[in-house]
Automatic annotation (TrEMBL), chain B:
SUPFAM superfamilies attached to this UniProt entry: MoaD/ThiS (SSF54285), Molybdenum cofactor biosynthesis protein C, MoaC (SSF55040)
GO molecular function: cyclic pyranopterin monophosphate synthase activity
GO biological-process terms attached to the record: Mo-molybdopterin cofactor biosynthetic process
Pathway: Cofactor biosynthesis; molybdopterin biosynthesis
Superkingdom assignment: Bacteria
Catalytic residues as annotated in Swiss-Prot or TrEMBL: 127
Role according to the record: Catalyzes the conversion of (8S)-3',8-cyclo-7,8-dihydroguanosine 5'-triphosphate to cyclic pyranopterin monophosphate (cPMP).
Subunit: Homohexamer; trimer of dimers.
Name of the protein described by the UniProt record: Cyclic pyranopterin monophosphate synthase
Positions of transmembrane segments: none
Swiss-Prot/TrEMBL keywords: Lyase, Molybdenum cofactor biosynthesis
UniProt: substrate binding residues: 74-76, 112-113
Catalysed transformations (reactions): (8S)-3',8-cyclo-7,8-dihydroguanosine 5'-triphosphate = cyclic pyranopterin phosphate + diphosphate
Length: 155, 265
């Protein structure tokens, strides 16, 4: 079972559940010993203090391909049993979940590391762009050097 | 989520609304027709050869809303209690905004009626003005809000911001330009698109000094100096949705995208 890739990615405008991927990844399995998930939310402060919402644009086709590729890299690097990645696009408000990554493995260390790895590469490679709306107007979010440094840790 | 107009075998199917509660339903749709500023002035001054353009288009929109069931195969015929069609002349954008509100007490929604009213009002505006302007464009016909019904209310948020670019959204048909000679289709995404004021371009391979991304950037910069910013080292590039650098080769019918550093997650 663990030789077969079990990676699913989804891009959608609709909200997703905080439990997204859990039941699906674990269904019918008893060899999974650890599940780590990360959920990213929209903050009401970022480049300006009063963010009222953001609009996420993506590049359909390339986005799905890139996320699958990142999942496969993690699969090669660690011994994993399931990977689920979901990312929202469109208009989001503070408090809304924007991204969720779930990794299942036999042991916790691999699941922790693979989840961290996937998020670092998602933030620096997947073609998403955020435009923040704030009380001072709207602007495109700039790339962050720290995100590039985080991704470089894995090289 | 499922499509109510398909039955269990996937065939087209008119929904039986006999058991639904009658509720007050309302829908607002909008669209616009963009025209040359001279055309817009003739229209607002009432000097077009076919006469009072807006009054005619209003009647056409109202009539069309009442006949929606004849046009859209699986729509029910509805006893509308109100149909309004309003026009807003926008000199700055050189267009006429068209808004329709439809209302009834009934068992099925009225968004198709509102959308049909806007569409036909726009078409009538086109017909009334086409003698002086063939370049008019009907755009952005959309549902703005709806109230009532079991699926609850809907309100379009932030209607002007693009959510996605590129092909491949379910249910959308891309009408990309076809070029007669070998060419590449270029897309500009996110902030880059807004800075350039362009979302797409078609470049013939014959125009490239070298058939690679570097050659494509040079050909675009020659076409318009705004495209010089593509050589900024933080502008990224993908060929057929795979990351590429300046040396990567381009071939006929490739899709090349330029975009800023990514900021998802």
């Amino acid at each position: 079972m663990d030789i077969k890739l079990d990676i699913k990615v989804a891009i959608q405008a609709a909200p997703f559940s905080m439990a997204y991927g859990y039941d699906d990844a674990l269904a019918g399995r008893s060899d999974i010993g650890a599940v780590v998930s990360f959920t990213g939310l929209v903050r009401d402060f970022n480049e300006t203090p009063d963010v009222t919402g953001l609009t996420l644009e993506h590049y359909p086709g390339m986005t799905e391909r890139t996320l699958t590729d990142i999942g496969e890299q993690a699969w090669q690097r660690w011994s994993l049993q399931a990977v689920r990645i979901i990312h929202r696009v469109g208009y989001l408000e503070p408090g809304d979940p924007i991204v969720r990554v779930l990794v299942a493995s036999a042991h916790r260390r691999e699941a922790f590391e693979a989840c961290d790895f996937i998020m670092d590469f998602l933030k620096t490679q997947a073609p998403f762009w955020k435009k923040e709306h704030s009380t001072q107007g709207e602007y495109w979010v700039k790339e962050r050097h720290s995100d590039q440094q985080d991704a470089a840790r894995w090289r | 989520m499922h499509l109510t107009h398909l039955n269990t075998r996937g065939e087209a199917n008119m929904v039986d609304v006999g058991d639904k509660q009658e509720t007050r339903r309302e829908a607002v749709a909008s669209g616009r027709i963009v025209m040359q500023s001279e055309t817009l002035k003739l229209l607002s001054d009432g000097e077009l050869p076919k006469g009072d353009v807006l009054a005619t288009a209003r009647i056409a929109g109202i009539q069309a809303a009442k006949r929606t069931h004849e046009l859209i195969p699986l729509c029910h015929s509805l006893a509308l209690s109100k149909v309004s069609v309003e026009f807003d002349i926008d000199v700055a954008e050189s267009c006429v905004h068209v808004t329709s509100l439809c209302r009834l007490n009934g068992r099925t929604g009225v968004e198709m009626e509102a959308l049909t009213a806007v569409s036909v009002a726009c078409l009538t505006l086109y017909d009334m003005c086409k003698a002086v302007d063939k370049n008019m464009r009907i755009e952005a016909i959309q549902l703005d809000s709806k109230q009532g019904g079991q699926r609850g209310d809907y309100q379009r948020i932030n209607a002007q911001a693009p959510i996605v670019t590129g092909d491949g959204m379910a249910g959308e048909v891309s009408l990309g330009e076809r070029c007669p000679s070998p060419c590449v289709r270029v897309k500009f995404l996110a902030e880059l698109r807004e800075r350039l004021g362009e979302s797409e371009a078609v470049v013939s391979l014959d125009q490239l000094a070298s058939r690679d991304i570097g050659g494509l950037k040079a050909a675009l910069a020659e076409r318009d100096s705004r495209f010089k910013q593509l050589t900024d080292q933080r502008t990224l590039c993908a060929i057929n949705q795979v990351m590429a650098n300046d040396d990567a080769l381009v071939t006929d019918d490739d899709e090349v995208a330029f975009f800023p550093p990514v900021t998802g997650g």
